[in-house]
Specification:
The protein is of the alpha/beta class and 282 residues long. It folds into two domains: 151 residues, Periplasmic binding protein-like II (D-Maltodextrin-Binding Protein, domain 2); 94 residues, 3-Layer(aba) Sandwich (D-Maltodextrin-Binding Protein, domain 2). Helix content is 43%, strand content 18%. Helix 2 links the parallel strand 1 and strand 2. The longest helix has 26 residues. The protein is globular and about 55 Å long. It starts with a helix and ends in a 15-residue tail after the last helix.
């Protein structure tokens, strides 16, 4: 009888130990697949090509599992992070403001090079200055693409005092091609996406205007993700920055030189731009 009770106690201790171990692993995210969403500046296929290698590298370095999520349009992407559906997100600077207000997303890392919005025209365009675009069609990726559209439209309206016809064409790639094809007299983009265009695209365009610089796109995390997991991912990306063979991989995701990000320092100042009246939620 005593032997039977000891056996049951031993079995109970073993089961308890297994439960505690499983719970600990789960708390560290070792049994969970974390989602990573990327702002659709490019097509879903190109986003997979650019981000797939980084996601794989993060899995190898952290022991965590990730699922890369892509979206066909920026409004679709916005709905996802505003609802808190994504664990990690690469988003534009004003998206970070929106995400912080809605879900308290925390910026982990960003590139050290400032982001600049650009207004491009065809290289042979008669347009010489911004005021020449009064009444013209201007292509933008989406209403809330920060430097390419949101901030740009505010500056065109309030600083340059021009009226224009906005055309929203979903991606930065589409913006540049709309201008080349003559379907829009100008287009809003950013320095990062323009520099990554094929040479045959860049040589057909010229930059007419650049916005004041801001902190670039952050790679952010939802606060529900355990701190241990956040720290693992952040450290992994920052360690990559010190490895020469990782430079090309990081450059593909627009973070060639990642540094720690801070909401109060990097993104809270954008709240003072009063861009709310230019935000469009679909």
């Amino acid at each position: 009888m005593v032997g039977t009770m000891l056996w049951f106690r031993l079995l109970a201790l073993i089961l308890l130990a297994c439960f505690i171990t499983a719970s600990f692993k789960k708390s560290l995210g070792q049994e969970r697949v974390f989602t990573i969403g990327v702002v659709p500046q490019f097509t879903p296929v190109e986003i997979y090509e650019r981000w797939g290698p980084l996601v794989k590298e993060l899995e190898n370095r952290t022991g965590l599992k990730f699922e890369l999520k892509t979206y066909k349009s920026i409004p679709e992407f916005e709905k996802a992070f505003l609802k808190g559906e994504l664990d990690f997100v690469f988003m534009n600077p004003y998206h970070q403001v929106m995400a912080y207000k809605a879900q308290k997303y925390i910026p982990l890392v960003r590139d050290k090079t400032p982001l600049t919005g650009i207004l491009v025209v065809r290289r042979d365009s008669p347009v010489k200055e911004v005021k020449d675009l009064n009444g013209k069609v201007i292509a933008f990726p989406a209403p809330n693409a920060f430097a390419a559209s949101l901030y740009m439209r505010a500056l065109l309206t309030e600083q340059f005092k021009i009226k224009f016809i906005p055309e929203y064409v979903k991606t930065h790639d589409n913006v540049y091609r709309q201008v080349i094809l003559g379907k829009a007299q100008a287009g809003g983009g950013v320095n990062n996406t323009f520099l990554r265009q094929p040479e045959e695209v860049k040589r057909e365009l010229r930059v007419l205007y650049e916005t004041p610089p801001s902190a670039p796109h952050p790679f952010s995390v939802h606060p529900r993700v355990p701190k241990e997991v956040r720290d693992k991912v952040k450290k992994a990306i920052l360690y990559m920055a010190n490895e020469r063979n990782m430079k090309a991989l990081l450059d593909r995701v627009q973070m060639p030189n990642p540094v720690p990000a801070d909401y109060a320092r990097d993104y809270k100042p954008l709240e003072k731009l009063n861009l709310e009246k230019y935000v469009v939620l679909e």
